[in-house]
Design goal:
UDP N-Acetylglucosamine Acyltransferase, domain 1, 2 domains, alpha/beta, serine acetyltransferase, domain 1, seven-stranded mixed sheet, five-stranded parallel sheet
């Protein structure tokens, strides 16, 4: 009994030390990127209705911590590559978010939930983007050149979406949850599916949505109508 209690005390102490060190590191790093920290906290308030106040966001949002630690790793990546990779690995271990130190991330990125996100070395993310959990910005080429996606400003990527290769996602585009994107996405487009295809365009100036024809879905609707007609005939 006494042994079990001692083991639990030791485990709780280890967890406390790790968490305290983690928050100290994040807080210390945030001092060097104070303006950036304020902007991503504001971004969290803008995107997440569950966000209560700045202190809660700073202390409990892993996406915020991941971005702050990435700023440090990115700053060191050109001259102190190994240290930058160590920081990135620590970032992944603590937050569950893997960002290569060389990845370029714009202002006010909001990572929602965040667990399982992977952002590759040559990925570029513009300003005011929004990523949900499980998103992958991955590459297929083994060449040492641009091989990861580029997201322009105001892009939203749904949970579990996979964006693969040197593709460009246009401004204000929306990627549906679970989509697999292997080609360029136009501005203001919404894409869904595997492989992803455009299903709508959103015009910001007049807030209208133009839905595009979907042959697969139209065919399903036709089959459903025919089934209903046959059922009605059989019931008569």
């Amino acid at each position: 009994m006494l042994t079990s209690i001692l083991i639990w005390i030791i485990l709780i102490w280890i967890i406390f030390v790790v968490l305290r060190s983690y928050l100290l590191i994040v807080s210390f790093s945030a001092l060097f990127f104070l303006r950036e920290t304020k902007s991503i906290i504001q971004s969290a308030k803008d995107h997440d209705p569950a966000a209560k106040n700045s202190i809660e966001i700073f202390l409990t949002y892993q996406g915020i911590h991941a971005i702050i630690l990435h700023r440090v790793a990115n700053l060191l990546s050109k001259r102190l590559h190994i240290i930058a990779r160590i920081i990135a690995n620590y970032n992944r271990w603590i937050t569950g978010i893997e960002i290569h130190p060389a990845a370029k991330i714009g202002k006010k990125l909001f990572i929602d939930h965040g667990m399982g996100i992977v952002i590759g070395e040559t990925a570029i993310i513009g300003d005011n983007c929004h990523l949900y959990q499980g998103v992958t910005l991955g590459g297929t080429s083994t060449k040492k050149d641009k091989r990861h996606p580029t997201l322009k400003n105001n892009v939203t990527v749904g949970a579990g979406a996979k964006l693969i290769g040197n593709i460009t996602v246009g401004e204000n585009a929306k990627i549906g949850a679970g989509a697999v994107v292997i080609s360029n996405v136009p501005d203001n487009a919404t894409v869904v599916g595997v492989p992803a295809h455009v299903v709508a365009f959103f015009e910001d100036n007049n807030e209208t949505i133009e839905k595009l024809p979907d042959p697969g879905w139209d065919r399903i609707n036709e089959l459903e109508k025919k089934i209903n007609e046959i059922e009605n005939k059989l019931n008569q």
